[in-house]
Structure formats: structure tokens, C-alpha cells
């Protein structure tokens, strides 16, 4: 918001009776001292007490001499000093409830209810959580006898204002963070110095600059120094970039340029998610072009030194605006962050900015597992999930052997290249079992904590559906299960509620049809013969009925359509009449669990006896050949598409559910099944599918 540029405005401000504390947290950045200085002097100017909190959140937790009142003179001669003179430290204890309780006690003892935090998104998220817990923390302190009720009334609200100090310029909502311009100065100074020696010896220099997740420093410094090539994490280069880069370097040398400069951000990766290191680039240039090549890693030089004029002014303006924001807060004012928009200091909601940063970072861990019987196309689905997940910035984890492997800790990171060639392979390369999670939720919750998993993609059949429902039910006991979960149906039985089609069903149908065609062909030219074929499917008759349609069967016996001896007799009579004509082959399909009494052997013996003298019988149990083999083109394509859509849903949910520095999802629509409904893929909360589920199938076998 704009501020009137007149003396009267500031004269009307009063901070009398207010206490403001300032701290720096996380990594240091040039200009932090200028921000601290501005907060102290502006606070004193308006009549407030201002305190230093030394060593960041650790000092707030420890209290004592770490929290000291600041004076006007105590911030003299700080503008030109790099780093932070009040210290910065990462504090594990502040992440715990007990640690924040200590911090609250230390602040209340000094009457501090206004906090100015200078740091990155993690530091600001921690501050916002502290603010939200404040009233509860005070009540606990009363119960422990550490403060009285009067203190609770006087210090009832904690006000937070943040300023972003980070050389990476990796915070959404601000054009520039404190420290970025100074870091660019360091980089350009080094590049300018290197260019003189490179030109003398006709060398190529490969420089690594900071930027694990954000390539701002690399990109802007490359523009500023006229580099030949730049590699950043946000834009992995297209395949074949090595040849293109070498062509560019060679062309520049041919144009009488005596040096080449390549700038690489430390987090640069290629399309296969493999790091692009300075050594990799150097070896490439030497091998392909034979140029004399050197590597320079700038490292923490970029953090050091005196702040630039821009950073001193930026930090000072932000510090003043932070104090003004604290003076104008009310009990209901949300935490804000002071940002730079164009050339103006503005206030933005802190958590909205943090969430925008989080959605762009690769700091979400997503696990994928197969559950139930193997189905052709599962591997295509896993491959699609892994590569789409990596493309969207997630770290992907593979869980072997379903829920059994989950609770046993059979979990590993899976990368882009690990799933190469998976599309055409049948079965489940991750391994899959029918074990359900209910008896092991405590151990599964432990594994989720251990690997910091933020979302689950479960690919499987009816057991997977039951499993996700059991995990959903466990949310009331274990908070670890409050994360986005989505199931993709993959089973040859096609018996998952909420979906007209499952991955693997088409391949199984092709196997049944091909086998039936060969069996029928074997009877060509022989005497009249009827084949009794048993298919898989558990208590679902999809394979028998649709396979019967595709293979031209005379009858199909399935669980969903009850039949008795009279129906069997009628079918035998029909086939007898049929065989008396020119038709010499008959085909009957039976779903494996269609009837406990009318087994495949029973039907075979019945047909053999009743058709004696007219036709003979043969029986075939197709068994697990329906699950094996390479997936059909349809299943490969279907598995790829549905899994990609599931990962996009996970990315969206992770962004929506990211609050206070963590993912928390406990609504019904955060545990869904993605199914094919008529012409569309639809996400459906699993709890809404209960009414259309026949749980008699729990004991089914595929």
C-alpha cells in the first residue's frame, strides 16, 4: 500500500506500549542487517520497545541473554556488513510443540507480542504456525502456573510480519528478495575476472552458481555477462542439448570469439531427471570439441561480502514497512509478508505466498504401489505416474509388494530412467500382494513418517479398493493418513466399483478370445465336440460374459445371473439340437466362482453324459495365462492416460492441502477412485462408492 510522503503521517503514528522483536532465521543473506537496523530504528522512532532475538528461533526457545532490548546506537555501522550480526540458526526444537511453548513463555515474560521474522519460506511458515497456536500456548502456560490470567488477557494475540531474505530470489509474491542483488554482484565480479584470463588462453569456463530449486541467479547472471549457455532446474534442456550446446560454442569460436562461458545452476537437471553437473559439462566440451576447459564453483562466495546499494535500500524500506504493518494490526489480522512490487513495498498474505512457492518446488514425496493380483498394464501405469510426477516436480517413491512391503519398509526412490521400457512388460515389476493394511496401520504410519510421504497412488483391484478404505478409516487414529490418496483400478476381473473398465481386463479378454479361437480350431474336421472353458474373475462375470461374446460362445455361466439344473439341462438340449446340424463345435464359458455346486467338473460331466452319442466334451481351465503376457495396446494406452490424470489430481490436491508447512488432507474427497464412467474419467470419493459395492466379494480370488 502507498504511504503519504509527509512528516505529519509519521508524527501521528505511535507504538507506545508495544514491544517488537526482530530475528533472522535460516540461511543468511546480504542486506539482512539493513533490515534489522530499519526495524529497530523505526520501532524506537514510533515509541515502541524493540528487542533483538539472537540465533533465530533457537534463541527464542532458549531465552535468557538471547533476547535483548535494542537501542538506537546498537545498530550503528550495520548497513555495510554482510550476513546477520544477530545470528541465524535452524532450530529443530521450535518445530515441536514443547519448543514453541518455551518460546511463548520467553516472549510473554518480556511483553513481546509483535514479531518481525527475516528468513525464507520455512522460517515464515514456522512463524505463522506459532501465531495460530499462540492462544493455546498461553492457556497451557496458565495451567502450568508459569503465567497468570491477566497476562493471557494483556498478550492475547501475536502479530507476525515477515521479510524474505534469500539470495535465490525463490519466493512468490515479491520481485526481489533481500540478498539477491548482492549475490548477482559477486557472480558478475567473478565472471568479469575470469573472462580476462579465459580470453588470454582461449579457454572455456564452466561456472556453478547457487540455486538448488530456482535458477534466477544463473539466468540473470548469464544475461548480464553474455554467457554462451545456461542450465537451470526449472527448464531441463531438450534431448540432444549436448550437440546443440557444442554447435553453439564451436560457432562462437569460429566467429573469432576467444572464450566461452557456461553457467550452471547447482540444481540443473536434464529431461531424465539426472543432475547436470559442471564436471559433466566440462567432460562433454573436452570430448566433443577438444577445448581447454576449466570449472569454477563459486559456492558461499555468493553469500558473502558487503550488500549492494540496492539490497541496503530494499531491506531498509521493507523494515520500515514491517513496523508500520505491526502498528496497524488487529487481533484478526492475518500474518503478512512485506514484498517488493515494481518499486513499491507492499504487504501480502504470508501463507498465500508460501503456498505458491511450495507448489513450484519439488518438495512433495509421492509413493506408488500395486495391490492385489497382477494385471497387464500395471507397469505402464507406474511408468506414467513416475514420469508425470517427476515432471511436476515431485520426488517419486516405489513401494514393493503392496501393503505388505509398505509396512516392512520396502520403499525406495524411483527415478525417470528406472521405469524405462516398462510399458510393454506384463505383470507387476514392483511386486504386488493381496495383504490388506488394517492390521498394520501403525507400521505403515511409521513408514510414512520415515520417508515423509505426502501422497499415495494405489494401483490395483478390489483389494486396493478395500485397502484405501481402511487407510481412510485409520485417519481418526493416525494423522499420517491425512494425505491425498487416489486409486487407479487395475484387475483382470474388472470388479472394482466406480469404474466401467480396469487396467488389464482388455489383455485378459484378448487372451481368452485367442485361446478359445485356437481351441475351436483344434476341433475343425473332427467329430462333434463341446468345450467347457473356465475363466478367472472371482465373483465377477465380466471376463466370462464379454469373453463369451467375443469368442462366439453358446453359453456363459456367471455369478451375477443365478442358474439351476433346469438351465443347464436346457443348454444341453440346445447344443444337442445344434450338433445334429452341420455345426460341429460348441463353446461354453464358466466364471470360476459362478456357483459352489455346479463346478467346472460337474458341468463337464453333465454335458458329457447328456450329450453321449451326439457330441463329446473337453474342458480347459485357462488359469493365470489370463494375467500374463504383454499388455494389449489398449491397456498400455489406458494405463498411461489414467495414471497421468491421477498424478495431476495428486499435484492439485497437494497444493490445496499444503498448510503451515505440511500436507494435511482429511476430507472425503481427498481419498478418491479414478474410474471410467461412460465417456469420462471421473474422480469419486471412495466413501460414496460403498452403496454400490457388494462386500461379499471381499474373499474373492482373481
Automatic annotation (TrEMBL):
PROSITE patterns: PHOSPHOFRUCTOKINASE. One of its GO terms (molecular function) is identical protein binding. One of its GO terms (biological process) is fructose 1,6-bisphosphate metabolic process. GO terms for cellular component: 6-phosphofructokinase complex; membrane. The keyword ATP-binding applies. Residues 20-325, 365-650 form the Phosphofructokinase domain. It catalyses: beta-D-fructose 6-phosphate + ATP = beta-D-fructose 1,6-bisphosphate + ADP + H(+). Its cofactor is Mg(2+). Pathway: Carbohydrate degradation; glycolysis; D-glyceraldehyde 3-phosphate and glycerone phosphate from D-glucose: step 3/4. Keywords: Allosteric enzyme, ATP-binding, Cytoplasm, Glycolysis, Kinase, Magnesium, Metal-binding, Nucleotide-binding, Transferase. NCBIfam families: PRK03202.1 (NF002872). This is 6-phosphofructokinase type C. It comes from Astyanax mexicanus. The lineage of its organism: Eukaryota, Metazoa, Chordata, Craniata, Vertebrata.
Amino acid at each position: 500500500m502507498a504511504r503519504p510522503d509527509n512528516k505529519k503521517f509519521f508524527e501521528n503514528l505511535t507504538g507506545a506500549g508495544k514491544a517488537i522483536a526482530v530475528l533472522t532465521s535460516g540461511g543468511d543473506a546480504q542486506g539482512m542487517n539493513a533490515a534489522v537496523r530499519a526495524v529497530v530504528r523505526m520501532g524506537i522512532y514510533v515509541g515502541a520497545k524493540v528487542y533483538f532475538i539472537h540465533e533465530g528461533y533457537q534463541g527464542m526457545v532458549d531465552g535468557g541473554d538471547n533476547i535483548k532490548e535494542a537501542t538506537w546506537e546498537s545498530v550503528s555501522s550495520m548497513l555495510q556488513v554482510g550476513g546477520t550480526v544477530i545470528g541465524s540458526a535452524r532450530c529443530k526444537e521450535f518445530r515441536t510443540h514443547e519448543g514453541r511453548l518455551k518460546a511463548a513463555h520467553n516472549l510473554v515474560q518480556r511483553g513481546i507480542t509483535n514479531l518481525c521474522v527475516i528468513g525464507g519460506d520455512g522460517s515464515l511458515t514456522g512463524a505463522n504456525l506459532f501465531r495460530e497456536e499462540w492462544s493455546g500456548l498461553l492457556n497451557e502456560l496458565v495451567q502450568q502456573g508459569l503465567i497468570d490470567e491477566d497476562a493471557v488477557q494483556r498478550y492475547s494475540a501475536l502479530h507476525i510480519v515477515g521479510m524474505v531474505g534469500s539470495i535465490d530470489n525463490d519466493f512468490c509474491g515479491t520481485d526481489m528478495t533481500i540478498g539477491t542483488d548482492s549475490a548477482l554482484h559477486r557472480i558478475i565480479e567473478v565472471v568479469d575476472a575470469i573472462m580476462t584470463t579465459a580470453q588470454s588462453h582461449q579457454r572455456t569456463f564452466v561456472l556453478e552458481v547457487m540455486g538448488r530449486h530456482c535458477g534466477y541467479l544463473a539466468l540473470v547472471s548469464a544475461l548480464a555477462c553474455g554467457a554462451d549457455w545456461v542450465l537451470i532446474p526449472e527448464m531441463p534442456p531438450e534431448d540432444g542439448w549436448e550437440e546443440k550446446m557444442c554447435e553453439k560454442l564451436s560457432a562462437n569460436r569460429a566467429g573469432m570469439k576467444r572464450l566461452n562461458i557456461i553457467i550452471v545452476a547447482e540444481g540443473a537437471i536434464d529431461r531424465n531427471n539426472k543432475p547436470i553437473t559442471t564436471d559433466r559439462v566440462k567432460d562433454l566440451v573436452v570430448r566433443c570439441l577438444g577445448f581447454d576447459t576449466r570449472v569454477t564453483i563459486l559456492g558461499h562466495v555468493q553469500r558473502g561480502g558487503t550488500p549492494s546499494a540496492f539490497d541496503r535500500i530494499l531491506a531498509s524500506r521493507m523494515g520500515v514497512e514491517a513496523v508500520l504493518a505491526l502498528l496497524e494490526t488487529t487481533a484478526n489480522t492475518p500474518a503478512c509478508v512485506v514484498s517488493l512490487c515494481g518499486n513499491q513495498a507492499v504487504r501480502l498474505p504470508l501463507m498465500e505466498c508460501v503456498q505458491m512457492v511450495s507448489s513450484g518446488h519439488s518438495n512433495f514425496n509421492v509413493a506408488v504401489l500395486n495391490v492385489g493380483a497382477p494385471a497387464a498394464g500395471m507397469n505402464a501405469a507406474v511408468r506414467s505416474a513416475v514420469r508425470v510426477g517427476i515432471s511436476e516436480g515431485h520426488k517419486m517413491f516405489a513401494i514393493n509388494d503392496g501393503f505388505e512391503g509398505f509396512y516392512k519398509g520396502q520403499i525406495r526412490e524411483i527415478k525417470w530412467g528406472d521405469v524405462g521400457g516398462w510399458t510393454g512388460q506384463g505383470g507387476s515389476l514392483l511386486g504386488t500382494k493381496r495383504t490388506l493394511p488394517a492390521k498394520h496401520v501403525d507400521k505403515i504410519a511409521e513408514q510414512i513418517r520415515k520417508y515423509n510421504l505426502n501422497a499415495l497412488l494405489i494401483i490395483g483391484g478390489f483389494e486396493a479398493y478395500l485397502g484405501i478404505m481402511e487407510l481412510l478409516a485409520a485417519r481418526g487414529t493416525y494423522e499420517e493418513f491425512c494425505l491425498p490418496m487416489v486409486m487407479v483400478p487395475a484387475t483382470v476381473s474388472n470388479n472394482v466399483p466406480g469404474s466401467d473398465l480396469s487396467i488389464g481386463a482388455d489383455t485378459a479378454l484378448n487372451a481368452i478370445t485367442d485361446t478359445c479361437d485356437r481351441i475351436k480350431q483344434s476341433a475343425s474336421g473332427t467329430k462333434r465336440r463341446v468345450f467347457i472353458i473356465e475363466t478367472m474373475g472371482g465373483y465377477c462375470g465380466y471376463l466370462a460374459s464379454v469373453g463369451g461374446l467375443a469368442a462366439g460362445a453358446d453359453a456363459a455361466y456367471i455369478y451375477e445371473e443365478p442358474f439351476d439344473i433346469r438351465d443347464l439341462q436346457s443348454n444341453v438340449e440346445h447344443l444337442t439340437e445344434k450338433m445334429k446340424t452341420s455345426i460341429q463345435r460348441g463353446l461354453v464359458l464358466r466364471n470360476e466362482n459362478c456357483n459352489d455346486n455346479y463346478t467346472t467338473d460337474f458341468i463337464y460331466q453333465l454335458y458329457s453324459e447328456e450329450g453321449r452319442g451326439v457330441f463329446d466334451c473337453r474342458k480347459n481351465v485357462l488359469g493365470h495365462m489370463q494375467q500374463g503376457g504383454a499388455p494389449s495396446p489398449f491397456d498400455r494406452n489406458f494405463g498411461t492416460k489414467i495414471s497421468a490424470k491421477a498424478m495431476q489430481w495428486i499435484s492439485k490436491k497437494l497444493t490445496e492441502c499444503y498448510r503451515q508447512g505440511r500436507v494435511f488432507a482429511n476430507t472425503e474427497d481427498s481419498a478418491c477412485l479414478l474410474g471410467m464412467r461412460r465417456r469420462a474419467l471421473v474422480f469419486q470419493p471412495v466413501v460414496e462408492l460403498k452403496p454400490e459395492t457388494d462386500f461379499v466379494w471381499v474373499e474373492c480370488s482373481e
